[in-house]
Design a protein that fits this description.
The protein has 206 residues and is an all-alpha fold. Helices cover 61% and strands 0% of the residues. The protein has a domain of 125 residues. It contains seven helices and no strands. Helix 1 packs parallel to helix 4. The chain is elongated and about 55 Å long. The protein starts with a helix and ends in a 14-residue tail after the last helix.
Length: 206
Protein backbone atom coordinates (compact mmCIF):
# COMPACT_ATOMS: atom_id res chain seq x y z
CA UNK A 1 0.00 0.00 0.00
CA UNK A 2 2.85 2.36 0.85
CA UNK A 3 4.35 1.66 -2.57
CA UNK A 4 1.12 2.61 -4.38
CA UNK A 5 0.74 5.69 -2.18
CA UNK A 6 4.30 6.83 -2.87
CA UNK A 7 3.93 6.21 -6.61
CA UNK A 8 0.68 8.22 -6.71
CA UNK A 9 2.37 11.05 -4.85
CA UNK A 10 5.26 11.10 -7.31
CA UNK A 11 3.28 10.66 -10.54
CA UNK A 12 0.58 13.17 -9.63
CA UNK A 13 3.31 15.62 -8.68
CA UNK A 14 4.96 15.09 -12.08
CA UNK A 15 1.68 15.75 -13.91
CA UNK A 16 1.14 18.96 -11.94
CA UNK A 17 4.68 20.10 -12.70
CA UNK A 18 4.20 19.54 -16.42
CA UNK A 19 0.81 21.24 -16.40
CA UNK A 20 2.49 24.29 -14.86
CA UNK A 21 5.01 24.67 -17.69
CA UNK A 22 4.33 27.76 -19.80
CA UNK A 23 3.66 26.01 -23.09
CA UNK A 24 1.50 23.22 -21.67
CA UNK A 25 -0.42 25.51 -19.32
CA UNK A 26 -1.35 27.79 -22.23
CA UNK A 27 -2.50 24.80 -24.25
CA UNK A 28 -4.65 23.31 -21.47
CA UNK A 29 -6.26 26.69 -20.77
CA UNK A 30 -6.92 27.35 -24.47
CA UNK A 31 -10.11 26.64 -26.40
CA UNK A 32 -8.38 23.56 -27.81
CA UNK A 33 -9.32 21.53 -24.74
CA UNK A 34 -12.02 23.68 -23.19
CA UNK A 35 -10.86 22.82 -19.66
CA UNK A 36 -10.63 24.97 -16.54
CA UNK A 37 -6.90 25.07 -15.87
CA UNK A 38 -7.34 26.61 -12.40
CA UNK A 39 -9.87 23.99 -11.36
CA UNK A 40 -7.67 21.14 -12.58
CA UNK A 41 -4.64 22.39 -10.64
CA UNK A 42 -6.73 22.97 -7.51
CA UNK A 43 -8.20 19.46 -7.54
CA UNK A 44 -4.87 17.78 -8.24
CA UNK A 45 -3.05 19.85 -5.61
CA UNK A 46 -5.72 18.98 -3.05
CA UNK A 47 -5.39 15.26 -3.72
CA UNK A 48 -1.60 15.52 -3.75
CA UNK A 49 -1.68 17.22 -0.35
CA UNK A 50 -3.82 14.45 1.11
CA UNK A 51 -1.58 11.75 -0.37
CA UNK A 52 1.48 13.44 1.10
CA UNK A 53 -0.16 13.66 4.52
CA UNK A 54 -1.28 10.02 4.34
CA UNK A 55 2.17 8.57 3.71
CA UNK A 56 3.24 6.61 6.74
CA UNK A 57 -0.26 6.35 8.20
CA UNK A 58 -0.80 2.73 9.25
CA UNK A 59 -4.54 2.64 8.55
CA UNK A 60 -4.14 2.98 4.77
CA UNK A 61 -2.32 -0.35 4.63
CA UNK A 62 -5.60 -2.18 5.28
CA UNK A 63 -7.86 -0.67 2.63
CA UNK A 64 -8.03 -2.79 -0.55
CA UNK A 65 -10.48 -0.36 -2.16
CA UNK A 66 -8.06 2.53 -1.77
CA UNK A 67 -5.24 0.33 -3.05
CA UNK A 68 -7.20 -0.34 -6.25
CA UNK A 69 -8.04 3.33 -6.72
CA UNK A 70 -4.42 4.33 -6.21
CA UNK A 71 -3.26 1.82 -8.81
CA UNK A 72 -5.80 3.19 -11.30
CA UNK A 73 -4.71 6.75 -10.50
CA UNK A 74 -1.05 5.81 -10.97
CA UNK A 75 -1.78 4.28 -14.36
CA UNK A 76 -3.67 7.33 -15.62
CA UNK A 77 -1.14 9.77 -14.19
CA UNK A 78 1.70 7.87 -15.86
CA UNK A 79 -0.15 7.95 -19.20
CA UNK A 80 -0.88 11.66 -18.76
CA UNK A 81 2.78 12.39 -18.04
CA UNK A 82 3.77 10.62 -21.27
CA UNK A 83 1.13 12.50 -23.27
CA UNK A 84 2.20 15.87 -21.85
CA UNK A 85 5.84 15.07 -22.61
CA UNK A 86 4.89 14.27 -26.19
CA UNK A 87 2.83 17.46 -26.49
CA UNK A 88 5.67 19.54 -25.07
CA UNK A 89 8.08 18.05 -27.59
CA UNK A 90 5.88 18.99 -30.54
CA UNK A 91 5.28 22.46 -29.11
CA UNK A 92 9.02 23.02 -29.02
CA UNK A 93 9.32 21.73 -32.56
CA UNK A 94 6.57 24.16 -33.56
CA UNK A 95 8.44 27.04 -32.01
CA UNK A 96 11.67 26.09 -33.75
CA UNK A 97 9.91 25.65 -37.09
CA UNK A 98 7.95 28.87 -36.76
CA UNK A 99 4.72 26.89 -37.19
CA UNK A 100 1.58 26.32 -35.12
CA UNK A 101 0.74 22.71 -36.00
CA UNK A 102 0.49 21.61 -32.36
CA UNK A 103 -0.95 24.82 -30.93
CA UNK A 104 -3.02 26.75 -33.49
CA UNK A 105 -5.31 28.12 -30.79
CA UNK A 106 -2.53 29.94 -28.94
CA UNK A 107 -2.17 32.74 -31.45
CA UNK A 108 1.07 34.05 -32.87
CA UNK A 109 4.15 33.68 -30.78
CA UNK A 110 4.95 33.32 -27.12
CA UNK A 111 5.81 35.82 -24.46
CA UNK A 112 9.46 36.59 -23.75
CA UNK A 113 9.30 34.31 -20.72
CA UNK A 114 7.77 31.56 -22.84
CA UNK A 115 10.52 31.83 -25.43
CA UNK A 116 13.14 31.68 -22.69
CA UNK A 117 11.47 28.48 -21.43
CA UNK A 118 11.65 27.02 -24.93
CA UNK A 119 15.36 27.78 -25.26
CA UNK A 120 16.05 26.35 -21.81
CA UNK A 121 14.12 23.15 -22.54
CA UNK A 122 15.70 22.68 -25.93
CA UNK A 123 19.17 23.19 -24.49
CA UNK A 124 18.61 20.59 -21.77
CA UNK A 125 16.41 18.00 -23.46
CA UNK A 126 16.80 18.24 -27.20
CA UNK A 127 20.47 18.64 -28.08
CA UNK A 128 19.75 17.53 -31.65
CA UNK A 129 18.09 20.89 -32.27
CA UNK A 130 19.99 24.12 -32.83
CA UNK A 131 18.45 27.10 -31.09
CA UNK A 132 20.27 30.37 -30.38
CA UNK A 133 19.22 33.21 -28.08
CA UNK A 134 19.12 35.66 -30.97
CA UNK A 135 17.16 33.43 -33.34
CA UNK A 136 14.04 32.25 -31.50
CA UNK A 137 12.60 30.47 -34.52
CA UNK A 138 15.81 29.06 -35.96
CA UNK A 139 15.41 25.60 -37.39
CA UNK A 140 18.49 23.60 -38.27
CA UNK A 141 17.28 20.87 -40.61
CA UNK A 142 20.67 19.26 -40.80
CA UNK A 143 20.54 18.36 -37.10
CA UNK A 144 17.02 16.98 -36.91
CA UNK A 145 17.54 13.50 -38.32
CA UNK A 146 14.53 11.28 -37.91
CA UNK A 147 12.81 13.73 -35.51
CA UNK A 148 11.61 15.78 -38.48
CA UNK A 149 9.69 12.77 -39.77
CA UNK A 150 7.43 12.59 -36.71
CA UNK A 151 3.83 13.53 -37.38
CA UNK A 152 1.57 15.29 -34.89
CA UNK A 153 -2.14 14.47 -34.78
CA UNK A 154 -3.54 17.55 -33.07
CA UNK A 155 -7.13 16.30 -32.73
CA UNK A 156 -6.10 12.89 -31.38
CA UNK A 157 -3.71 14.51 -28.89
CA UNK A 158 -6.36 16.94 -27.65
CA UNK A 159 -8.83 14.08 -27.11
CA UNK A 160 -6.18 11.97 -25.40
CA UNK A 161 -5.08 14.66 -22.94
CA UNK A 162 -8.64 15.77 -22.21
CA UNK A 163 -9.68 12.17 -21.55
CA UNK A 164 -6.71 11.44 -19.28
CA UNK A 165 -7.15 14.62 -17.26
CA UNK A 166 -10.85 13.81 -16.89
CA UNK A 167 -10.00 10.29 -15.70
CA UNK A 168 -7.52 11.64 -13.16
CA UNK A 169 -10.07 14.14 -11.85
CA UNK A 170 -12.66 11.36 -11.54
CA UNK A 171 -10.24 9.19 -9.54
CA UNK A 172 -9.04 12.05 -7.35
CA UNK A 173 -12.48 12.51 -5.77
CA UNK A 174 -12.86 9.02 -4.19
CA UNK A 175 -9.15 8.85 -3.33
CA UNK A 176 -9.43 12.19 -1.54
CA UNK A 177 -12.59 11.09 0.29
CA UNK A 178 -10.94 7.94 1.59
CA UNK A 179 -7.82 9.83 2.61
CA UNK A 180 -9.70 12.55 4.48
CA UNK A 181 -12.13 10.11 6.15
CA UNK A 182 -9.97 7.27 7.50
CA UNK A 183 -12.79 6.39 9.93
CA UNK A 184 -14.74 5.12 6.92
CA UNK A 185 -12.79 1.87 7.14
CA UNK A 186 -12.89 0.85 10.84
CA UNK A 187 -11.57 -2.64 10.06
CA UNK A 188 -8.22 -1.10 9.25
CA UNK A 189 -7.98 0.63 12.59
CA UNK A 190 -8.86 -2.57 14.39
CA UNK A 191 -6.31 -4.53 12.42
CA UNK A 192 -3.63 -1.96 13.16
CA UNK A 193 -4.17 -2.18 16.94
CA UNK A 194 -5.37 -5.70 17.79
CA UNK A 195 -6.42 -6.35 21.38
CA UNK A 196 -5.32 -9.45 23.23
CA UNK A 197 -8.24 -11.40 24.66
CA UNK A 198 -8.67 -11.41 28.41
CA UNK A 199 -8.16 -15.01 29.48
CA UNK A 200 -7.97 -14.41 33.22
CA UNK A 201 -11.57 -15.49 33.79
CA UNK A 202 -11.69 -18.37 31.34
CA UNK A 203 -9.39 -20.83 33.11
CA UNK A 204 -11.09 -24.21 33.38
CA UNK A 205 -10.56 -26.83 36.04
CA UNK A 206 -10.35 -30.58 35.44
Amino acid sequence: METALGAANRLLGNVLKKLSEDLVAAYVASSELGLSFTRIKTELNYTLGLLHAAQGRDAVCYNPGLQELLEDLNKKADEAEDALDELHFFMIQDELDGTRDATPGLGGGLSGHGRHAVRHTVGNCLPCFSCSRTQDNAYNKTNIGRVGALQFDRIAMAKRIKSLIGDIQTLCAPVSNLQINPSSYPTAAKAASPKRPNTSSTITQD
